[in-house]
Write a structure and sequence with these properties.
There is one protein chain. Helix content is 81%, strand content 0%. The protein contains nine helices and no strands. It has helices spanning 2-13, 17-35, 38-41, 47-67, 71-84, 90-99, 105-134, 136-157, 163-170. Helix 4 packs antiparallel against helix 8 and helix 6 (90-99) packs across helix 7. The chain is elongated.
């Protein structure tokens, strides 16, 4: 959705491709750097908590992005959303692997990634229509608000045994 939003906000905030490029670079670097912390963090914190909190913060940050009245506020909220969304694949895949017998793990992780790819196809199509019909703030809220709900549901519904965390801690 954000590439479409960037087109819409360029005249609103009076920015150009250079500023957008720096925002994308900053978000990618920070989200990638934070992903390095997930391996040790998963040994002391539940994956459910990491994913749930990440989803809630991601959704809140996306919603705040739609309320931004300046490029600085838009950028800060966008970067916060990128960082908060960063556990989805490394932590999500680890949680899926922990809940499946070894022979079922590849298929489960493939479904996880395929689901994300469906979103990659659907969001630009629906997002373009929402932006054209209702504006970019509504479009980012349409992503943010459901993400808060899903993050909260992860905290309430998802369970994990922690067996692999205990084994990892026991073996260093």
């Amino acid at each position: 959705l954000l590439p479409l939003v960037f087109i819409a906000i360029t005249p609103v905030f009076g920015i150009g491709v250079g500023e957008i490029g720096l925002l994308i670079a900053a978000g990618n670097v920070l989200a990638g750097a934070v992903q390095l912390a997930y391996a040790p963090l998963q040994r002391v914190m539940s994956r459910r908590a990491i994913l749930g909190a990440g989803g809630i913060v991601f959704g809140a940050a996306m919603t705040v992005t739609g309320l931004a009245t300046s490029w600085a506020a838009f950028s800060a909220a966008t970067i916060a959303a990128r960082v908060a969304g960063s556990p989805q694949h490394p932590v999500g895949n680890a949680l899926i692997a922990e809940q499946r017998v070894e022979r079922a793990r590849p298929a489960a992780i493939a479904v996880h990634i395929a689901g994300g790819n469906l979103g990659t196809v659907a969001v630009p199509l629906v997002g373009a229509w929402v932006i054209a019909s209702f504006g970019w703030p509504v479009a980012v809220a349409a992503v943010g608000i459901p993400a808060v709900v899903v993050g909260a549901l992860i905290l309430v519904v998802v369970r994990e045994s922690g067996v692999d965390r205990a084994a990892a801690l026991a073996h260093g």
